[in-house]
Each structure stands twice: as C-alpha cells, then as structure tokens.
Amino acid sequence: GITRHYTFNIKLKNITRLCHTKSIVTVNGKFPGPRVIAREGDRLVVKVVNHVPNNISIHWHGVRQLRSGWADGPSYITQCPIQTGHSYVYNFTITGQRGTLFWHAHISWLRATVYGPLIILPRQNESYPFVKPYKEVPILFGEWFNADPEAVINQSLQTGGGPNVSDAYTFNGLPGPLYNCSAKDTYKLKVKPGKTYLLRLINAALNDELFFSIADHSLTVVEADAVYVKPFEINVLMITPGQTTNVLLKTKPKAPNATFLMLARPYATGMGTFDNTTVAGILEYETPSSSLKNRPLLKPGLPAINATNFVANFTSKFRSLATAKFPANVPQIVDKKFFFTVGLGTKPCPKNQTCQGPTNTTKFAASMNNISFALPRIALLQSHFFSQYSKGVYTTDFPAFPLIPFNYTGTPPNNTVVNNGTKLVVIPFNTSVEVVLQDTSILGAESHPLHLHGYNFYVVGQGFGNFDPENDPPKFNLVDPVERNTVGVPSGGWVAIRFQADNPGVWLMHCHFDVHQSWGLGMAWVVLDGELPNQKLPPPPSDLPKC
Ligand code: C2O
Q1: Which ranges carry the Plastocyanin-like domain (predicted)?
Q2: Could you give the 3-state DSSP secondary structure of residue 313?
C-alpha cells in the first residue's frame, strides 16, 4: 500500500439551511466534510488542526485500528481532545477491510456537523465480488439542527429532560423539498439508463434509525460496515446510526418518463427523541431533449414508524459471503461470555433543583448492566498504558452479568436508578468473546444501535423477549453470520455477538444514538497485550494531546 496524507483544518463556517444561517464547526469549511479515500493496505496520515473554540477529536468509525489504538479518536477513551490551537496526526493502516465507512467528531454532539465518508477501495489488482459499477456515489444521511447541537445536549444533561429534536434529516447535508424553505437544498442523483450505480449509504444521523427507499427502483445490498455480504434485493432498507450499507442501483434500460423521489424517515420504537419528518432527494434520468417539467414525480412507500417486524426481517437477511477468499472467521468456541442489559433508566434529581426527567424528581439516564458510563478526566488508553496513572481514573469491575437479573421485557422492578461509573472489562489478548445485548423496557422498549470500536463482530443470533441461555444458543448461526461494527439491539429483544479480541488497547462500546451515549449508554474493554512483539500496542505518538 501507499501512504495518503490529508489535512483537516477544523474551522467555523456559515451555513444556511431551512432559511436559517448559523456558524457551524466544519472540516476545511465543508459540510458534510471531505471524502477520505484509500485502498486496502494503504496508510492514512491525517493531520487535524483545531482552529475553533471547541475541543475536538476525530474517530475513524469502523476502522479496525490494529495495534494503532492511539489513532482511534474517541475523546477521553483513546486520547484527550485536541484543544484550540493544537493539532494531532492520526496515523493508521487499513488492514483487511474494503468498503464504505465514515469519520466523525467524537466529543459531545459535534458530529452533527463534523462527519464525512471514508471510502476503502479494494487493492489495486482486485475487483469487487459483484458487477463493476458504472459510478460510485456516497450518500450520507444526517440531521440538521437550527440550534447549536452542543447547547442542545448540554441543556438536556442539566435539566435531565429529553433534548430538543433536530429540525431536518439530510442527504449529503441537504434537507430537500419536504421542509419549509428548503426546495433549493435538494440532493439530486443524475443517472443514465441501463447502468449500475454503487450507492454508498452512511447513516451519520445523531439519534435516528432511518428507512430509505427510491420510488420504483429496487436495490441490491452487497456490503455492510465495509464487509461484503451475500447479495439480496430490497425495496426499502433500514440503517442505524453508525451503519454503512452499499447497494447496487440498476437503472432502467430506457429513460422513463418520470422522476423518482428517494426518501428517508425514522424507524423509532422508544419514547422518542426524534422528529417524524422526511428527507427527500431526487433520482433523475439524464435525457437529451424531453422536458423534465412534464414528468410525473413518483414517491416510494415507507414502512410505519414503528415497523419492528419489518426491521427484524430485514436485518435477518444479512449474511457473510463466507467464501475461501472472504471467510467468516466466527469464533466457534467461546472463552468468555457476557450478558449486558442496555436501556434507559433514571438518575435522582439533585436536591433544590427541578428536573425535567421522566418525573420531576428524576433525570434521564442510560446504562449497561445498570452502570451509566462516566467519562474520565484523562484518556483511558493513556491511563492503561502508563499504568501508574490508572488509579482513580477507572475501575476494572464492569460486571459480566447484571447484578440483579429481572424480567427485562416485562414490568420493570421498582428500583431502576442507575449508578455512575467508569468501569471497564479486562480481557487477555486473543480471548474469544460472546456478548448478549439485551434491551430493557424500564422506560419502554427501544432499539439501540450498539457500536464496538477496534473490532468487527459476528451477529450470531437475535430474538424478541428475554434471551434464553438454554434454548437460544443452539440456534446461533456460526456459519455465515453478518460481520459488522454496529448492530441494532432489537426493541424488546436481544442480539448475540462474537469477536476474537486480537487487538490490544482500550475500546469503547456504546449506543450510537448520541443522546443515549451522552446519558451513559456505554462501557469499555481493555484488551491486554499478547506475548509476541506483534501482539503489543506500541507507545503513543509524541503529539498525543494532553488533557
Ligand atoms: Cu461512530 Cu464511538 O462512534
């Protein structure tokens, strides 16, 4: 591979959407941010220079970061944030991955405006395991806030209430014609008839899983989270924040006398921090002469907002290729099993304050195994690597199982108050891990897109209700389960994942709804070094930011 250099200047830029102009944090003045392209095996060297008042760090979402954990990017996990006037060089190699990923800010809610595509092409002399597309088109799904996104979450954390919802969803930063004062900001995909387009779909929205469909065109799913899958055809897809999906769009053999809307709007199950609006873009066939004006505009249908069965059916279609060239290396034997509950709960309201949580004596909180993840003062990876600092920064007692099991999908127990903590799980190098993630219905069942840093995992099983440790594991798919970095824990259900802990470092696992993450829905793994030199995490680069 070769080395590719990028410079990310973090700077403010005035952007107008929905007739509302505001100054936003951007990379190089672009919204959405610049495209980063590499081939499998290439090294990326990205210098990030912070020219804004906000602290920032950049995460390369889905990149394995094999023995390069210092470049992963989540603030206070693998690095302290880059302060105003400072810079940091992210230096990492793309190993064993090809497809679509994305990069985004990983602190507070800055990723609302700081995100962009990360495209990994196959090695020079390799091709796709599907028909060579005529053209490749990244489409980032996002959320636009008229307000300052950091102010929105800060207010929620202070009052304990749900944050204000966004004002629009976007395709490549554009809300489209279904919003007021937005028709001129419409994403348009111009196509030629009789061609195959590769759409690289990225859900960079903060808090919403989204349905997506294009009128009168089916799509063939060929890749998810930068891993090829067995192709399957759909009319509607669902994509959670943190997921990427590559689809082939085959255009009609002759330019039809119509224009086609593409739509996205939320799939939402919980009590909801979502706005039920629709972003629209346009698929338009290029034709030499005929007037576009008289063409009818066709609109796709989308499932109901809470169509959980549709989603379960859709997600069950994803399968690894599991071929000799692209094997599914599913751990067949598990060294260590974990069972984590994920869900919302409450924290007590501080005395002499009124809160706007589920009741006025409580604040919203979110947790795994009843622990609401609290960010430390200095980065966990630093603290772990220079272990003399670890005292008081984190503890290693994150429970492998819930301390007090209950009926997770039934009536919740009386005491659902969560505890704050910076608790980690420590596992030896190369442990094969199984984690069952179980949604709780303490404040109503809700699906949660769980994302693991530093790894892909295999999704070996999923179901509704309480996970049954006797009867569910025999049904696990250990042959061709999908391999990904973000999975939706079904609303009122569970999902089981497996991974081989072959990447030493400290790795965050969290809900990719920013609101849930801010409320504490996360934890972190410490994967210890192995014996051999190539199984150890090297020391940090000298420009690693200080807290
Ligand atoms: Cu895309 Cu920790 O996130």
Answers
A1: 10-124, 136-286, 408-529
A2: helix
Ligand 1 mean position, distance from CA 451 (Å) = 7
Model confidence over 157-198: pLDDT tens digits? Answer: 999 999 999 999 999 999 999 999 999 999 999 999 999 999
DSSP 315-376: HTT-BB---SSS-----SS-SEEEEEEEEEEEEEPPTT----SSSTTEEEEEEETTEEE---
Q: Give 89's strand partners.
A: 47
507 CA to centre of ligand 1 in angstroms = 11
Q: Counting atoms of ligand 1 from 1, which one is nearest the CA of 510? A: 2
pLDDT confidence tier of residue 290, bands split at 50, 70 and 90: low
Separation of 193 CA from ligand 1 center, angstroms?
Answer: 37
Of the candidates 92, 46, 8, 88, the one whose C-alpha atom is nearest the C-alpha of residue 379 is: 88
Average pLDDT over residues 449-455: 98
The Cα–Cα gap between 479 and 466 comes to 24
Q: Exposed, middle or buried by CB within 10 Å (0-12, 13-18, 19+), for 342?
A: buried
Judge if the beta carbon of residue 104 lies within 6 A of ligand 1.
yes
* Of 490, 458, 515, nearest in space to 225 by CA: 458
Angstrom distances, CA of residue 503 to CA of 16, 76, 431: 43, 19, 10
Dist CA 155 CA 161 (whole Å): 8
Confidence of residue 537 (pLDDT cuts 50, 70, 90): very high
Q: In this structure, what token pair is assigned to residue 415?
A: 């005491």
DSSP one-letter string for 384-452: HHTGGG-TTT-BS---SS-SS---TTSSPPS--B-EEE-BEEEE-TTEEEEEEEEE--TTS---EEEEE
Q: Tokens standing for 231?
A: 């192709």
Average pLDDT over residues 538-542: 98
Taking only the tens place, the pLDDT of each residue in 300-309 is 999 999 999 9
61 lines ligand 1 (CB under 6 A): yes
200 lines ligand 1 (CB under 6 A): no
What letter represents residue 535's amino acid?
A: Q
For 55-67, the pLDDT digits (tens) are: 999 999 999 999 9
Ligand 1 nearest-atom number relative to CA 62:
1
| Domains along the chain with CATH numbers | 1-126 (2.60.40.420), 128-318 (2.60.40.420), 336-535 (2.60.40.420)
Q: How many CB atoms lie within 10 A of CB 48?
A: 22
For residue 280, give the nearest of 145, 146, 183, 191 by alpha carbon.
Answer: 183
Atom 3 (ligand 1) nearest CA:
61
- Say if ligand 1 is within 6 A of residue 73 CB: no
For the cut 90, the answer to whether the pLDDT of residue 271 exceeds it is: no
Number of Cβ atoms within 10 Å of the Cβ of 413: 11
Sheet (strand 522-527) strand order: 424-427, 522-527, 505-511, 448-452, 486-489
